[in-house]
Amino acid sequence: MVRLLVHPLVNDVRRVARALVPALILLTSSGVWAAGDPSAPIATQVHAIFQAKCTECHGPDVTHPKGKFGYVLDLARVAANPKMIVPGNPARSELYQMVVHNEMPDPKGDSPPLTPVEKDIVKAWIEAGTPAYVGPVGAITASPLTVRRRIIRDIGQFHPPSTHFPIALLIVALPAELLWMFTRNGAWKGAVRFCVALGAICAIVTATLGWCDATVTHYGGDTLKILAWHRWLGTATAVWAVLILALSELAHRRGNPESLSRSFRLILLVGVILVSVAGYLGASLIYGLNHFVW
Q1: Who has the most CB within 10 Å: 10, 27, 177, 220?
Q2: Do residues 98 and 25 share a domain?
Q3: Is 163 in the same domain as 48?
């Protein structure tokens, strides 16, 4: 049964890889992936509002910020958190809903709620796509999203949920391979091939969605370094997953000789490390590097 499921999937992997890998290379090397246009002055106004009303609980100098949210002045990082902001859609943005209903700033704190004008500015900032550049008011003119960039942005929003698939599948393949090594039960080897094949497809899709997301996501300061590491480790993981898949199929066709099996296990282990680190850095863009601190 496993063999009947895996063989058609392997053929699909080859077709998808031939279609997506050249596209990924083209996209990552083209001008489409340049940083977003400079923002409008509205970002400066939003920064000033957050500085005056929100830093009491969520400022960078707060030792224990509420909700582990201590980067309210880093507009790029705030905008990159899908649990807070849905660019272009204030109604689905939790941060705006908390502001408009006077749940933030904390009514028990010293900071007064936002005025109606300030709420309108935050709303307009989200509707404008959450520009992040903070400069002198009036120094920069607004640059609305084009239809093309809006489509890319909407596609890129599927990147965070898509990451769960390659992370889970490639990691699960490792213990399944170890179980096959110790038991020689063919069902475990079938599970390995299934997880590796589907994980490689998902890794390519996820990396492509990540580059889409990066076109309209703004980062600044230290998060730029995290983004760079996340971006290239994620891309390397997708390439590595294809290599793992190729070795898996080669070993299967040759009867899983021990020499190929050892190479496959080593490369699979490296792939598991890559996907784990890339996933951790992706979460760090939203929650900070200390999101595993107990």
Answers
A1: 177
A2: no
A3: no
- The alpha helices in 217-257, defined as continuous H runs, are 223-253
Q: Which of 63, 70, 71, 81 is nearest to 157 (CA)?
A: 81
Task: Report cis status (omega within 30 of 0) of the bond before 105.
Answer: yes
213 and 182 within one domain: yes
Find all residues with CB under 8 Å of 30, minimum gap 6, and list them.
none
Residues 158 and 280 in one domain: yes
pLDDT (0 to 100) of residue 38:
36
Residue 26: how many other CB atoms lie within 10 Å: 10
pLDDT digits (tens, 9 = 90+) for 189-200: 999 999 999 999
Looking at the fold, whether 18 and 52 belong to one and the same domain comes out as: no
Is residue 220's pLDDT more than 90? no
Give the domain CATH number at 212. Answer: 1.20.120
Average pLDDT over residues 85-109: 86
